[in-house]
Amino acid sequence: MIITAKGGNYSDPHCYSGRSVIAQLFEWKWSDVAAECETFLSQHHFCAVQISPPHENRVVHQPNRPWWERYQPVSYRLETRSGNEADFIDMIRRCNAVNVRIYVDMTINNMADTRSYGLGTGFSPYHGEQRTYPKVPYSGWDFHDKSECFTQDLEVHNYSDPAEVRSCQHDHLADLDLSKPWVQEKIIEAMNHLIDIGIAGFYINNAKYNSPEELSTIYSNLNQLNNTYFAVGTKPFIYHQFQEIDGEAVTSSEYTGLGKVASYKYGPQISAVFRHAHTLNTVTNQIPSWALVPSSDTVVFIDDQYTQRDPSHSVLSMQQNTREYSMAVAFTLANPYGFPRIISSYRWNSNIVNGSDIGADAGPPSQDPRSCTGNWESVYYETLKLEILLTYYYKKRGGDLQQDPAGASTGKHQNTRCKNTKDEYSTRRKRDTRHVNIKHKRLHINRRDQWVTGADFGRPSARK
């Protein structure tokens, strides 16, 4: 393969007309994702699904099969607990058939833990300490070592040094050297295989650990999207996970020229506002002061699998703050800042040991996530109703977050799939006796471009 380096922006999410929200179906099986595309997401104007990493990963037994094992690949075969390659292909076909796109949570920075060895989820052998992953294949020559990383344990310690961040490993994960042509070739092959199947884009996990130049070289050699589902010449959508630490040298602005950035600054800020029950008008006026990524460059979200398990509880939780959380998510859908993502995840049994919740390691429940049983949570069902009512409050100025529109958030999460719901919702504002009926044959996520706050955070018509 001849690898070339040329620029290019990958910010178009390829949403079907009128759609503008990502549903992150965390740890869902491919067959369940396909069914959700057909029966719910396509009918409620979701743009896309962000799926969990599809590549064969390390099998962890202590703790037993945790969620984070999915981020420790041992090969680029499509064999995980979510399904095999045939299941994956079927999901892509079925979701694209109803115009719901698939974005892949992609781990390209690292392979499995250097302290582990054995067989992956598809029975591929590997040896982390020796840095050998035969089914790719990778060997020790393909990883950063003491010639590039100068810390004693090869771990990142100084986040104010970009060279250390990008040349050392984190959390003992074998750190691939993306400057090497062989590594680039293997990653490009893996990504192109997914593109050829029919995915629409990638969510690049731990993007800051790789330089923009290395990523640009890889992206420039990606195939065009499958023209069975997309126009000829279409580039994949790419957005980057970016957890920013105060004082670190690597910044999210370095990556916005490549695609969008999913920044972790928005969630804590909006959570703080909703904890203190400010008016909606106050919230929108505060957003410009938060120094966030520009609207056209960001994927915006309240929480994900990392912040849900953060012991600092800097963001609202579905488990702990159901009412405020639901309204914060609904606000994020109604407010035209960024490209919104909401998560469907699961609860776990907390077990605090020495200040840490070891129960948070738990993998997904065994039940079907669409069955309304067990610990699965699908926040977007109730959020759809809230989003419609919050949009009304926007148009009338200054809606009070202390109010509970239409009883939509009751302090206890309810999944609308599990009960009979009406298509008509009514509310009477305490500050305005006007009675409002909002009638829909279906609840559609359709972000408004008519706002009365006077603030311009990026109109839906300009959002790519």
Describe the structure.
With 464 residues, this protein is α/β, with parallel strands linked by helices. Mean pLDDT is 82; it is low at 392-464. The two termini are 32 Å apart. The chain has 9 helices and 17 strands. It has helices at 30-41, 85-97, 162-167, 181-197, 212-220, 266-275, 280-286, 322-334, 380-396, and strands at 22-25, 48-51, 101-106, 110-113, 117-119, 125-127, 173-175, 201-204, 237-242, 260-263, 299-300, 339-346, 352-353, 356-357, 376-378, 424-428, 435-439. Strands 1, 2, 3, 8, 9, 10, 11, 12 and 15 form a 9-stranded mixed sheet that branches. Helix 6 crosses helix 8 (322-334). 22% of the residues lie in helices and 15% in strands.
Poorly predicted runs of 5 or more residues: 392-464
Overall mean pLDDT stands at 82
The proportion of strand residues reads 5-15%
Number of E strands? 17
- Summarize the main sheet: 9 strands, mixed
Determine the fraction of residues in helical runs and give it as a percent range.
10-25%
Number of helices: 9
* Helix and strand pattern: EHEHEEEEHEHEHEEHHEHEEEEHEE
Distance between the termini: 32 Å
Radius of gyration: 22 Å
Global structural class: alpha/beta
Bulk shape: globular
Key structural traits:
single chain; 464 residues; alpha/beta; nine-stranded mixed beta sheet; two-stranded antiparallel ribbon; 22% helix; globular
Short account of what is shown:
This protein has 464 residues and is of the alpha/beta class.
